[in-house]
Each structure stands twice: as C-alpha cells, then as structure tokens.
Amino acid sequence: MNSLNTTAVERVSELLATLNMHTDTHADAPLSNWVAGELAPGQGERIELLDPVTGLPLIGYRDAGAELVASAVEAATQGQQEWMSLTASERGRRMTAAAWALSGHEETLAQLESVVAGKPIRDCRGEVNKVREMFEYYAGWCDKQHGEVIPVPTSHLNYVRHVPYGVVGQITPWNAPMFTCAWQLAPAIAAGNGVVLKPSEMTPLSSVAIAMLMERSGLPKGLINIVNGVGPTTGSALTSHDGISKLVFVGSPESGRRIAQAGAERLVPSVLELGGKSANIVFDDARLDDAVAGAQAAIFAAAGQSCVAGSRLLVQREAFEEVCERLARAASEIRVGLPSDEATQMGPIQNAKQYQHITSMIETARQHGARLLCGGQRPSDLPAEAEGYFLAPTVLVDVTEDMAIAQEEVFGPVMVVMPFDTEEDALRLANATRFGLAGAVWTQDPARAHRVAARLRAGTVWINSYKVINVMSPFGGFGDSGFGRSSGMEGLKEYTVAQSIWVETAPTASVAMGYGSGVD
Ligand code: NAD
C-alpha cells in the first residue's frame, strides 16, 4: 500500500473517530451496522472496498448476515410500537430534532461520503443539506395525516385511517447514499413505520452515521436500523423476512425484479425506483446557451452516475452541428479531478465494475459505428495519485436508436447525441426505450413545450431546465424505471395503507350485519 492510499485509509478512520463510530478491534473494521440503537459488527464474510481515486484498498467490513437482519427487524418492530405510542405532534417534533441532529457534523458526513463514494466534496455538502431538508419536510407531515369521512349511502359513519405498514425494508444504491437513505427513511417514519435499511455494499458508512446521529437525538431506540452487506446474503435476508411488510428499493432494474419477486413470494408490496435512459430534447428555437449548459449538467454532474442522467440528447437537425460543436468544447473544459479538490466538477467512477461496464459500452458502440466527439478515455492531466476509475466526459455521435448505447443505461459520463427532424420524430425517439424516468424539452415555444412534455413517457419532465428535484414533488418512473412514487405526499402515501371503519349510527341496526342486505 503506498503512502497516498494510507492517507485515504487514515482519513476514513479519523472521520469515523470524529463521529464516534468505533472500530471493531477484533476484525479491525468499522462497526458497520446500526441495530437496536447500537453500533454492531457484521457476522458474515469480509467485504473489501477500494478507493475510487487510487484503486487501492480503502476499508473492509463484515457482511451483516441473516441473524443480524433478524435482530434489526425485531428492534424495528419494538421501535415502531414505541413511536406510534407518541402523539403525532410529538413525532413531528422529534423528526425535526433528528433533522437538526446533523448540526456540527455536516462537514464530517460530507467528507466521509466524498472519500468512500468518490464524489466531489461540494456535491456531498449538497447531499447533507438535502438530508436535513427531507427530514424537516416530512416532520411537518406527522400531524397532518388525517383520514377521510366517506358519504356512504347507509346509516353508517364510514371513516378511513391511513395506518403504517409496520416495519419496512429499504434497499439503496451507491450513487447518492445519504440522499437515498434520508429520501426513504423520512417518509417511512413520518407515516409511523419502523425501518430496516440496507445501503449498497459499496457505500456502507454514511447511512449508519445518519441513523446513529438521528436516533440519538430522541427517536425511539430501534426505530431505524441499518444493515450492511451484499444482495444475495444480507439483502435477501431482509427481503424474505416475515417481519417486513413493505419493500422499497432504489437501484437497477435487474435487482429490482429480484426484490419485487421476493415481495411477491410473501405477497408484500414494493416500490421500485430504478434506472433510466432519459431523453433531453433540444428544438432549433431553443436558447442554445442554456440548452448546452443544461445538457452538460444533465449527464456530467455526478459523473453521470445519476438515475435521471440525460444520457440521450436529441437535437433538431438545423441545430445539430452547432450543439455538437459547443458540447465538445464545453465537455473538454469540465474539471475532472480529485473529489477532495473544491474545484473538481467531476470525480472518478465509484467502482471498478462500473468503470468496466462504462468503458465496454463505449467500445461496443464504437465497434457498431458510433463516433467519439470527445472523451472515451482517462483524462490526460490528472494528479499523480489519481490512478483509479477516472473517465473524461464522453460524447458520442453517429448513434442509431437500436444500439445498446442508445437503449441501455450506461450510468457514467457518456452522452449520445442524435438528430431529429419533426416534433413527432423527437417524441418517437424519446419514448423508444424500456425506461421512463425523466426527460426534458428545450424550446421557446410554450405551446410546444407543454404538448411535448405531456406526451413524454417519463415520471419527471423539465421544460427549459434539467435535474431540478425537490422532496415536495413526486418522483418515480414508468416501465423499467419502476413503479410507485417517492417524495411529496405521494411518497408518504406509499408508506401507509388505508383502513376503512364502519360505525352504525341508527338507533337500531339498519343492516343485518351483511345477511342479505348489502355486503357479499
Ligand atoms: P444495484 O441494483 O446493483 O444495487 C442496489 C442495491 O440492491 C444494493 O444495495 C444491492 O446490494 C442491493 N441488491 C442487489 N441484489 C439484491 C438482492 N437479490 N436482494 C436484495 N438486495 C439486493 O444498483 P447499483 O449499481 O447500486 O445502483 C445503480 C442503479 O441504481 C442504477 O440503475 C440507477 O439508475 C439506479 N438508481 C435509481 C434511482 C431512482 O430514484 N430511480 C436513484 C439512484 C440510483
């Protein structure tokens, strides 16, 4: 191990010490789980993580394993009961306190995420702020989930309560670990559930830190549990556990299918937030400065490791050459570098497997006739220690819609630019994938903007903008991008189930308890 990598290893230890997340001295590994209000070691195989910057060993920890998952479900069951014994207003107050429990730890959390996930530090600071925002937003919902009274045609008072499922199992990916953790934890507990969450095995620590800081601020012990490990062991122990009443999954369509199948085995419903192949449509009357800036942000932010990445840029033929030229120039100016550098706009790809997936998709596209406008290789001017998974912003043209690069999710800083002639043409191309997560339209014609937006088969559509999301607004996909919604009121509703209560109000029962008079 060279001295530079020792620095990254030491940096993680320092950050964990600052957060008081102790190391399991027997295994010489971080205590990588938060179960029943305690940090706990994993019990399974050791998992080794590499530093995205150098490609050298960074941290190792033990897979949680089925027994620890069972303890987490048990703790969540008890934590949930305690949580629901509080008044709704008190739950709201405690969630607000949980949001502010991150105060003073923001920079440590951002640094920890930046080192382990390889994300630029300024992006990680933004993620910490989002965590707080999500808890504050859903704290406000705690005492506003009143039910409804239904005007039934009998003498009954019929009212509906929105009740929690009980214990929810959540599984998240590596590309935005803190964001996705808070994104699902906050509505789940605001709705009254206990949670067992499994982050990606690639980014285990920040979710543990968030749960620990928040729970210690006054949430019932065991309300939130974090278990770390891989899908086939810890993941499937969670999805198949009898104590879990709902599954919420954020990740790839391949894993999403397995999670939905595991739920179906036990007749447990799921929400799937999956990948995308989002179309970013630029008409020739668009303000091209804005459209080109938006196109870059759409794909190169987070090195394209974003579910809503605008990976297909569709440009009206009259503007095609100009947009391509501007894009190639702008892409070559993006600062790719160390995540710790404040000036870095794009860091490395998070892991070796993903790096290989991206580079092999570029290579296959080239073999099928696609042409590189820029990128496609490691940037030439990286600092010496940046021997990890760096890739220059990549733009491909001469792409046909049947190529894998135009159909499959790359999940990296790779954009294809394709021309179109008419509005119909643009819509047909945009909707011609299995995905349906997001999309955008750039035009100065408002009628066309709304017309096209309405016909895009995508859960989120931006007009003259890209990548703006907020916890207040529903988010989710069509097709292979998943089902169910997160964020906003819709996100909250996913965590409750309606219970209908019938109360006879007539002096004598007007319905003979269902015998021949109404209910079959
Ligand atoms: P992934 O599907 O490989 O893994 C996601 C999570 O699922 C991980 O925690 C993993 O351990 C777990 N998992 C895998 N197999 C499992 C199994 N059989 N049982 C239980 N758990 C299992 O995805 P990834 O590579 O971590 O993340 C990238 C993907 O996530 C991309 O497709 C991206 O678009 C998607 N994503 C979607 C959203 C969204 O909101 N729609 C947000 C972020 C990322």
Model description:
With 520 residues, the chain is α/β, with parallel strands linked by helices. The protein has two domains: 31-42 and 66-274 and 486-497, Aldehyde Dehydrogenase, Chain A, domain 1, CATH 3.40.605; 279-463, Aldehyde Dehydrogenase, Chain A, domain 2, CATH 3.40.309.10. It is built from 16 helices and 22 strands. It has helices spanning 3-18, 66-84, 88-100, 106-117, 121-139, 177-190, 205-216, 231-239, 253-265, 288-300, 317-332, 352-367, 404-407, 423-430, 446-455, 488-493; strands spanning 23-24, 29-30, 33-35, 38-40, 46-50, 57-62, 148-150, 156-164, 167-171, 194-198, 224-226, 246-250, 270-273, 279-282, 312-316, 371-374, 394-397, 414-420, 438-442, 460-463, 482-483, 496-504. Strands 16-17-18-15-14-19-20 form a seven-stranded mixed β-sheet, sandwiched between helices. Helix 15 (446-455) links the parallel strand 19 and strand 20. It starts with a helix and ends in a 16-residue tail after the last strand. The mean pLDDT is 95.
